[in-house]
């Protein structure tokens, strides 16, 4: 599984337009092959900063979405509302065991 976080800073006057765009497309994104989860977060200290948090079966599934007609419509429209460049990164659950100060697994 791949977890994708995209942090986006919007011009304050564009927030309602972004929210309309997100709500109009979120169900379509959730139904893309390989998408297992999608939600929208808002920064608690900066009202114009939002993050999408999505889970994908694989990097290939995410890339297939990024090549889709849906992404080709949603992303350019979203980018037009930005006040700053987005920050996007992919992560996965860590499988490293925790070690104590002696280097022994716990």
From TrEMBL:
<dbReference type="GO" id="GO:0004497">
    <property type="term" value="F:monooxygenase activity"/>
</dbReference>
<dbReference type="Pfam" id="PF03992">
    <property type="entry name" value="ABM"/>
</dbReference>
<protein>
    <submittedName>
        <fullName>Antibiotic biosynthesis monooxygenase</fullName>
    </submittedName>
</protein>
<feature type="domain" description="ABM">
    <location>
        <begin position="2"/>
        <end position="92"/>
    </location>
</feature>
<keyword id="KW-0560">Oxidoreductase</keyword>
<keyword id="KW-0503">Monooxygenase</keyword>
<dbReference type="InterPro" id="IPR011008">
    <property type="entry name" value="Dimeric_a/b-barrel"/>
</dbReference>
<dbReference type="InterPro" id="IPR007138">
    <property type="entry name" value="ABM_dom"/>
</dbReference>
């Amino acid at each position: 599984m791949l977890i994708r976080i995209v942090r986006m800073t919007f011009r304050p006057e564009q927030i309602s337009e972004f929210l309309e765009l997100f709500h109009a497309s979120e169900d379509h994104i959730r139904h893309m092959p390989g998408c297992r989860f999608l939600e929208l977060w808002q920064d608690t200290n900066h009202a114009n900063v939002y993050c999408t948090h999505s889970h994908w079966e694989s990097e290939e599934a995410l890339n297939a979405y990024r090549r889709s007609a849906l992404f080709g419509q949603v992303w350019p429209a979203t980018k037009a509302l930005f006040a700053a460049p987005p920050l996007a990164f992919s992560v996965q659950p860590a499988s490293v065991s925790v070690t104590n100060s002696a280097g022994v697994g716990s």
